[in-house]
Task: inverse folding
C-alpha cells in the first residue's frame, strides 16, 4: 500500500458513500449536493490517476454546469424543501438489478486484476491530450461538435411551446432530418 | 498504484446509478442517477488509460472527455424534456406518464405538436392552445 493507494481508497470511499446518499436520500436538494461531493471525489481520483485535464474538465463541466442545471430543474419543478415520502417506488427489482450489476462487475474486475500494481504513466496534461484530440481523434471531435449543435437545437425546439404546433411543417421536417 | 481500487469504485458507482434509475420516481433524480453511471464509465476509461498500454497514448482520457461532452448534451435535452413535462402535467413523476394510446377526449399537449400534427392532421392541432399555462402570445396561431 503506497500513498497513492491510500489516496485512491479514501477518495473511492467518499465517492461511493456520497453516491449511495444520492440514490437514497429523501431530500431533492440534498441529492444534488451529495452529487457534487461524489463528482468532486471522482475528479480527485482522476488527479491521482495522472489525468489532469480530465479532472479539471470534470470540475468545470460536471460540478460547475451539470449540477447547477440539475438544481435549476429541482427549483423550476417546485420541489418541496423538506423530506418527501413519494420519491421512491418499492424497489426490490431495482436493488436486485443495481446490486447485481455493481457487485458482478466488481467481482469480475477483482478477478481480472487481483492485487497487481502498475506504474503510473506520464501525466495527461492539456498539451499531450490536445495533440491526441487534434491529431488522432479529429473526426470524432468534429462529429461531437455537430451533435452538440443538434442537442442545442433540440432543447430549444422542445422548450418553446409556441413553435410546436403552428410551425409544425417547418420544425417537424427539421426534427425528422436530425 | 493498484488498478483494482478505481475499477471496483467504478463498478460500485455504476451499480448505484442503475439502482437509482430503477428506484427513483422523480425525473430529476433519475437524471442524477444517470450522471452517476456516466461517471463510472469515465472512471473506467481513465483507469484503463493508465493500466493498459495502447498504440495511441491517452486514448482513454480523450474518450473520457468525449463522454463528458455527451453527458452535457444529454443533460441539456433531458432537462428540456423534464421541464416540458412539468409544464404539461404539473408533475415530474416518471411512473405517471401515460405510455399507452391517448384517450380521445384528452387535450393534445403542444409539445407533441411536430409529430402529432403532421401525423393526425388538423384534428390534433385545433384545441391545444389554452392548455399550456403561461403560454406565449396566441395571436399568431
Result:
Amino acid at each position: 500500500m503506497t500513498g497513492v493507494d491510500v489516496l485512491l481508497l479514501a477518495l473511492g470511499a467518499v465517492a461511493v458513500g456520497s453516491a449511495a446518499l444520492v440514490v437514497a436520500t429523501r431530500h431533492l436538494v440534498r441529492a444534488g449536493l451529495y452529487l457534487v461531493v461524489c463528482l468532486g471525489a471522482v475528479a480527485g481520483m482522476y488527479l491521482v490517476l495522472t489525468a489532469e485535464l480530465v479532472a479539471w474538465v470534470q470540475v468545470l463541466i460536471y460540478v460547475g454546469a451539470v449540477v447547477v442545471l440539475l438544481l435549476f430543474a429541482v427549483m423550476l419543478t417546485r420541489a418541496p424543501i423538506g423530506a418527501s415520502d413519494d420519491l421512491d417506488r418499492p424497489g426490490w427489482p431495482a436493488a436486485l438489478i443495481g446490486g447485481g450489476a455493481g457487485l458482478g462487475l466488481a467481482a469480475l474486475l477483482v478477478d481480472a486484476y487481483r492485487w497487481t500494481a502498475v506504474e503510473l504513466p506520464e501525466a495527461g496534461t492539456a498539451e499531450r491530450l490536445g495533440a491526441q484530440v487534434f491529431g488522432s481523434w479529429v473526426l470524432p471531435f468534429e462529429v461531437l461538435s455537430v451533435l452538440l449543435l443538434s442537442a442545442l437545437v433540440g432543447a430549444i425546439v422542445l422548450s418553446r411551446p409556441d413553435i410546436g404546433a403552428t410551425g409544425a411543417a417547418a420544425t417537424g421536417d427539421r426534427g425528422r432530418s436530425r | 498504484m493498484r488498478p483494482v481500487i478505481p475499477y471496483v469504485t467504478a463498478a460500485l458507482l455504476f451499480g448505484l446509478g442503475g439502482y437509482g434509475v430503477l428506484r427513483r420516481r422523480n425525473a430529476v433524480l433519475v437524471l442524477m442517477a444517470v450522471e452517476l453511471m456516466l461517471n463510472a464509465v469515465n472512471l473506467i476509461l481513465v483507469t484503463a488509460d493508465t493500466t493498459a498500454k495502447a498504440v495511441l497514448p491517452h486514448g482513454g482520457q480523450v474518450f473520457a472527455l468525449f463522454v463528458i461532452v455527451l453527458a452535457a448534451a444529454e443533460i441539456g435535452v433531458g432537462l428540456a424534456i423534464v421541464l416540458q413535462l412539468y409544464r404539461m402535467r404539473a408533475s415530474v413523476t416518471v411512473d405517471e406518464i401515460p405510455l399507452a394510446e391517448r384517450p380521445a377526449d384528452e387535450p393534445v399537449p403542444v409539445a407533441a405538436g411536430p409529430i402529432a400534427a403532421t401525423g393526425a392532421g388538423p384534428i390534433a392541432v385545433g384545441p391545444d392552445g389554452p392548455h399550456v399555462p403561461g403560454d406565449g402570445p396566441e395571436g399568431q396561431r
About this structure: Chain A touches chain B through 100 residues (CB under 8 Å). The radius of gyration of chain A is 21 Å. Chain A has two domains: 3-83+92-136, 137-178. DSSP finds seven helices and no strands in chain A.
